[in-house]
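Structure, all two chains, one model.
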Amino acid sequence: MATVFHDTLQADMEQTQRVIQTLAKLPPELAAAFDYHPVDVLALQPSFSLDELAHQHIKSLPASTRNTLTGLGALEERRWVKQHFGLSIPENAMDDDTEESARFFEEDNTELHVRSDFLIDDLDNPHAIRVTFILNKHNDTLKSQGVLFSLREKDTPVFRLLRMPGLIDDAKNVRLMLFDADDGYCADTLQDICDNLETVSRQVLAGDMIDNRAAQVLSAMARHKDMWGRIRRNVMGTQRAASFMVRSRLLNAEQFEDARQILCDLDSLNSHTALLFDKINFLMDATVGFININQKKIIKIFSVVSVALLAPTLIASAYGMNFKFMPELDWQASDPFSIALMVLSAVGPMLYFRKRGWLR
Amino acid sequence: MFSTSAGALNARYLAGCAHQGLQALPQLAALRPEQRCEHVYRLDAPGWVRASRIVAGLTLARQVRKHHALLDTLPLADTLQLAINLPGIERALAQQKIDVLGSTASSYTTGKHWAFCQTRANPGLQPWRRPGRQASFQPVTIEHLMASSAIPFLFPAVPLLVDGHKKYFGDGSTSQLSPLSPAIHFGARRLLVTGVVQPQRAGMGARSHDEPTPAPLPATSWPLCFTIPCKPTWNRHSG
């Protein structure tokens, strides 16, 4: 749309300068005869492309405008990048490949492609976002040279953690700093898991684990283990990406040292995740053990009750037999006697079980 | 102070605060970031227009039928009413803080480029008429600002009364051949000009050798088609 408007201002200023120069060359008496006078012009022009500025604020457009422009296909960023930077973004740039050759490779036109997953530590819905980085380092015929392009479906915390990326002069530094920020983010998330595990661990080791609490602990443990798996995957992905950058031989000595440091950090993070894995497994086993003990207690109570009631049942069965001759039939105290006998035969085994410690 | 298109709002705001001197500049700078698209135009489009180009096209066609343009600029009129201090402009002219305040617009009816100038009671000057452009002395109202910033196709044309007739006007920068001439005509000897010539335009990448998409072709060629290059230009710098 900007091309509709002619920039006639510069042409008019040039004309003005020409007239002024012509007037200056005329004899004063002749110049005074014309209805012209010299004009000093100071022109202020934008130092930044208004189109690029506008493009940065597309998200501030009202939803109805954005929807309409999207419907018309005017907000296709891929096409804008192609027009403005000459960079062709492959259709499969966001594919979920795991093999090394599909995630880290160099195109024939020397573009470097790196696909990494970045973690989103959302308690309700933890997930990873695939981010594709494209860097044209060598091809100076394109405006994309030296610009790091990142493709992602939504913003990730790691990108927000990167402070003042506009002040970083080298695209490779931006990517290394992103990996570093990702490493830090994973470490923070691991620390959160450790803190939560401490609380859970205190509950488990307190011993008094009723079934409801055990269920809560198991649920929390499952969440932590799921997050642990995601962190582990994220760390391994970042490790592979950083290793690829080291192998690509694009880094200078300082960047190489940074990348090596990031790899060391990722290694130590890996060891930490292994430790955490053991702790989570131990706590899960302990919780499951407590649940088993609780179940055994219930079974024991059932067993005791059934054994204790065996003798009264036998007595009741004996007196319930319909024989013609039974000495207690004419005895006045026969009924209270039989009841007392049944109570005693039930209490007796119970006292015996208690004495042996089987009821604890 | 002469202005065109979106700059008309800036000039008019500064003129309204002319009695405050340079304090008006930071006030203007503070005003602009507060303005959002919702303060300028309205587009009634449901969320599902993003699904298809046909649906989006039909929605825009409905807008055009309703507002005679793609966007409804009623919010801009409200914004200007709130932002511009019209009595302040009258006062600045009367107190000779400023000599003349003008804005330009392009007439859809005649194809001419008009400079609307508001001066104090007796300026001692007559409106001028040049090939392709003309001046008119009249109070510059909110409608003039709306006309000056009415981008073709996007914003509706604005009717203004000139020479006793109602004529429709659009953005002042579309067919503006000599933006400095109104100021020079009023005898200016030192000009401070704020333009929007961009260092580089998107879609016109310096090192892009790709064939352009169909969109920029009409946008570039239309104004070129309708600009008459043989218009006499020798009288530009007498104003």
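The two ends of chain B are 15 Å apart (CA to CA).
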